[in-house]
Design brief:
The structure holds 2 protein chains of 2 kinds.
Chain A: H1 8-21, E1 26-27, H2 30-35, H3 42-49, E2 59-61, H4 66-79, E3 83-86, E4 103-106, E5 113-117, E6 122-126, H5 131-140, E7 143-144, H6 157-163, H7 170-173, H8 176-179, E8 180-186, E9 192-194, H9 207-211, E10 220-227, E11 229-230, E12 234-242, H10 245-257, E13 264-268, H11 270-281, E14 289-297, H12 299-316, E15 320-322, H13 323-332, E16 349-358, H14 359-376, E17 380-389, E18 393-402, H15 411-431, H16 450-454, H17 458-468
Parallel strand pairs in A: 2-4, 3-4
Antiparallel strand pairs in A: 1-2, 5-6, 6-10, 7-11, 8-9, 8-10, 12-14, 12-15, 13-14, 13-17, 16-18, 17-18
Chain B: H1 7-13, H2 26-29, H3 36-48, H4 56-64, H5 70-74, H6 81-94, H7 100-111, E1 116-118, E2 123-126, H8 129-134, H9 137-148, E3 153-156, H10 162-167, H11 170-186, E4 191-194, H12 197-210, E5 217-220, H13 221-228, E6 237-242, H14 245-249, H15 256-263, E7 266-269, H16 288-304, E8 314-317, H17 320-329, E9 333-336, H18 337-344
Parallel strand pairs in B: 2-3, 2-4, 4-5, 6-7, 6-8, 8-9
Antiparallel strand pairs in B: 1-3
């Protein structure tokens, strides 16, 4: 590690980096280094809150092209310096933190919109583009990526690709990995490669999928072609209150098994319905579990699907109809949950224990995680909702929250408590058919659990990492791969 | 400290990313530091360790902000990182830590103030440095007033306080504002009309904060011209209107500019991809060109990149400042509201 400007090698390397990307695009200032030392992960936020020093990079490099990324990779390999790609910095798993110093490769300068292919309905852009900017650009031409997560305002497209992100319309349009046509990637050794131009083929294993979710450990994704969709003629929502979570889950699963095509389903457990939905919507709700769903597309097809979905909700599961207004409120306020003060914030300790499982397992996963949190951490609150639904199961967006008075002031003790919750809850999920994570990624936060999840398959991942990144420069210590 | 008044912004903005896409300077420098989140986080650091205030990089980052307030307008709870930034600058000034460039600009502003009023009338038109610098805004206003048959006087001669305030020189800003208000009051004007939205902000909001009574009506030219009820002889046609930071984000989306354009039959087309980003070249910071004009050039290029047809689009702005720097750094065809109206009467 270099870290000190007193070390003359620091200046030697800085000179090489400026030669690669330009003087203006190599940052060494305290403010910019600090900006890259805290992301949306609770631990660095808490660390900063307690006045502790946060891990800073030696250099913040803003490449302008894949060729410049390649040059940086070659310099980093030559000197064995860590390289950590950074998009919007809004990751919640610590995946972009420069825990070993080195180079932060801030991708936001690579923000070119390349174009929409209106015949194939695809859009191509550089991956440093902020997602909201891409979505606005597509909207101007009557299209949408349909990738609309709460982080749309701050995350880059590359960030979504790096951790297999998802958006509120995933139930119909898929997660980001379902939206990708092809990628341009700079490998850790500096080769610029392109994956195949289409995602459906029988031309060998899918390299695109190798890089999606690799969290900057296997290379840097510099350009992407994504599917786009015409803005729908109609989009309608409807909400129900069910007597309990189990009934609501059964109704939601039935909706998916019916093979109707909702664009979104969201189910809040009783706790979250009382404490969060009511507060954000300003809506008086009965006790029970709130479920909202919607359809989009041609108006007559939306009407038909809505009618059949309502029959499932009302006739089979006896949900109390909150009408389209109850559903529209959710759509209109879907991001409001994430703005302060609605979002949980320090001094609280909180985390999103998101996982995914089949319908056969998902309730067991939910109850197992809830039990382990409630029994071992009685001072914590456990809430959950189910955000992303598939033909075979759904994603649990569980959260634990400690109020400030229950969080140790000592930062090491607070971090230890935090990690214990994660370890126990995630192990409970895995034991019941869940996985470490559904769409936030693994990062630094959950890397230690990767071996438990993958078992004998972990060496396969490690072998790929070693082959692609022989000097282990790419985001070391993340995704369960070894550090420095 | 002055930042203590903005504890809610410190606590709520320091880890929040939800306005990241609207970080005007951040979108052209690409750096995390140039975002409300990081600025608020660094200021939080100062609350724990005041010695951090002296860090040159921290200070320069604060002074580089375009102060567009787009973040605050966007935020569902309107946390005000902009005012927090200005409060931090004020603390820096009070601790003797203001950067040399800010001190020099402030000294120049203070020493060059010399108010002059031409004529006597109930309506007084304030021609600030940017309005005068355009060379076209004041003549357009004059043409409108002649058409309306209204006698007016003008006042000009310095900084009325907004520029000093955003630089962190709050006491000097207050003194400048007091002097200006007493000058206008002494002239007997009942209505003061301003073209520069920054002047509007000072007189509408800053004076109240300073405890200065403003004993005359203050109107932006858009509101005033609209009130005249003039009929356009021809339609203003297709235009793209770029909002003013001060009129939109600072003053709850003041409706008069768009109403005025509608009154002269302008067909307002949506510019770029959204109406949330600031397209003003840094109007909120008032004197960003004197701090770092390369940033202003980048902001202008960012705007030009979003035009549908840069060579032919007619861009209309409320702010003389924006006209000056958009015209200087791009090939866009830019007019102010006053010019558009004068042309069609």
């Amino acid at each position: 590690m270099l870290s000190s400007k007193d070390n003359y090698m620091y200046e030697m390397i800085r000179t090489e980096l400026t030669d690669a990307v330009g003087e203006e695009f190599v940052g060494t200032g305290n403010a910019d280094k600090f900006g890259h030392s805290v992301d949306y992960y609770w631990i660095p936020e808490m660390w900063h809150d307690r006045g502790m020093p946060t891990p800073k990079p030696d250099f913040v490099v803003h490449p302008g092209s894949a060729e410049e990324v390649s040059k940086v990779m070659k310099i980093a390999n030559h000197y064995h310096i860590p390289v950590v790609p950074w998009g919007g910095g809004s990751g919640s798993q610590g995946g972009a933190l420069p825990v070993y110093g080195g180079i932060i490769l801030d991708m936001k300068r690579m923000n070119k919109f390349i174009g929409i292919d209106k015949e194939s309905l695809t859009v191509t852009c550089q991956t440093g583009m902020i997602a909201r900017h891409l979505e606005w650009r597509c909207n101007k031409e009557g299209f949408s990526t349909m990738h609309l997560p709460a982080s749309i305002a701050c995350a880059t497209i590359g960030g979504f690709l790096a951790h297999r992100g998802t958006g509120v319309l995933s139930t119909k349009y898929g997660k980001i990995e379902d939206m990708v046509m092809s990628l341009e990637v700079v490998t850790p050794t500096g080769e610029i490669i392109r994956t195949l131009p289409v995602p459906r083929h029988a031309s060998g294993p899918d390299l695109t999928m190798l890089f999606l979710g690799s969290e900057g450990t296997l290379g840097v994704i510099t350009e992407v072609t994504l599917k786009v969709h015409p803005e729908p003629e109609a989009r309608e929502f409807r909400a129900y209150i069910f007597k309990d979570f189990h009934t609501a889950m059964s109704a939601g699963a039935e909706l998916m098994r019916s093979r109707l095509q909702p664009c979104a389903i969201r189910l809040y457990d009783e706790e979250e319905t009382i404490h969060h939905v009511r507060r954000v919507f300003g809506m008086e709700l009965d006790k029970g579990a709130y479920l909202v769903f919607g359809f989009d597309g041609p108006a007559d097809i939306v009407e038909c699907q809505m009618r059949r979905a309502r029959a499932i909700m009302e006739e089979k599961y006896h949900g109390k109809d909150l009408g389209s207004k109850g559903g529209d409120l959710w759509w209109q306020n879907k991001y409001k949950f994430f703005y302060p003060p609605f979002m949980f914030h320090i001094p609280q300790a909180f985390g999103t224990l998101d996982t995914v499982a089949t319908f056969a397992n998902i309730e067991n996963v939910y109850h197992a995680m809830k039990k382990v949190v409630n029994e071992n951490f009685p001072q914590a609150r456990f809430i959950g909702h189910f955000s992303h639904w598939y033909e075979w199961g759904c994603m649990l967006y569980a959260r634990f929250i400690f109020e400030g008075e229950n969080v140790p002031e000592d930062p090491a003790e607070a971090a230890a408590l935090y990690n214990r919750v994660w370890d126990m809850a995630i192990r409970a999920a895995i034991a019941n058919g869940g996985v470490i994570n559904e769409h936030h990624g693994v990062g630094l936060k959950l890397g230690r659990l990767m071996k438990e999840l993958y078992g004998p398959a972990m060496p396969v991942l490690e072998g790929i990492k070693k082959q692609l990144d022989p000097n282990n420069i790419m985001n070391p210590g993340k995704l369960g791969f070894k550090g420095i | 400290m002055n930042i203590d008044k903005y504890t809610d912004a410190i606590k709520n903005c320091r880890f929040c990313f939800m306005c990241r896409h609207l970080s005007g300077i951040g979108n052209v420098t690409f750096t995390e530091a140039d975002t409300p989140r990081v600025r608020a986080s660094m200021i939080y650091g100062v609350t724990m360790d005041p010695e951090k205030m002296a860090d040159k990089d921290f200070i320069d980052t604060l002074y580089r902000s375009d102060l567009s307030r787009a973040c605050c307008f966007h935020c569902v709870n309107h946390y005000d990182e902009n005012s927090l930034n200005i409060a931090m600058r004020t603390d820096l000034v009070e601790k003797g830590l203001a950067p040399d460039y800010a001190k020099a600009i402030a000294e120049n502003l203070k020493s060059s103030s010399n108010w002059e009023i031409s004529g006597a009338a109930e309506v007084l038109y304030f021609t600030d440095r940017y309005t005068l610098q355009t060379g076209t805004v004041a003549p357009a206003f004059d043409a409108i007033m002649k058409k309306a048959g209204i006698n007016y006087a003008t006042v000009s001669g310095g900084c009325i306080g907004r520029a000093l305030k955003v630089l962190g020189f709050a006491q000097d800003a207050k003194a400048a504002a007091e002097k200006f208000v007493s000058t206008v009051k002494a002239a007997g004007a009942k209505t003061l009309v301003v073209s520069n939205p920054a002047a509007y902000e000072l007189l509408k909001n800053d004076c109240a904060e300073f405890g200065i009574e403003v004993p005359f009506a203050v109107m932006h030219t858009s509101e005033y011209i609209l009130s005249l009820g003039l009929k356009a002889a021809k339609a203003a046609g297709d235009i793209y209107y770029l909002e003013s930071d001060y009129l939109k984000n600072y003053n709850d989306n003041l409706p008069f500019p768009r109403q005025l354009l509608a009154a002269v039959n302008a067909n307002i087309k949506p510019f770029g991809t959204n109406n949330e980003e600031s397209y003003t070249c840094g109007e909120g910071a008032v004197l960003l060109p004197e701090i770092d004009e390369t940033l202003v050039a980048k902001l202008a290029a960012y705007i030009a990149d979003r035009a549908d047809d840069p060579a032919n689009d007619k861009i209309v702005v409320a702010s003389p400042y924006t006209k000056i720097f958009l015209s200087k750094y791009t090939k866009l065809n830019v007019a102010t509201l006053e010019e558009v109206v004068a042309e069609v009467l």
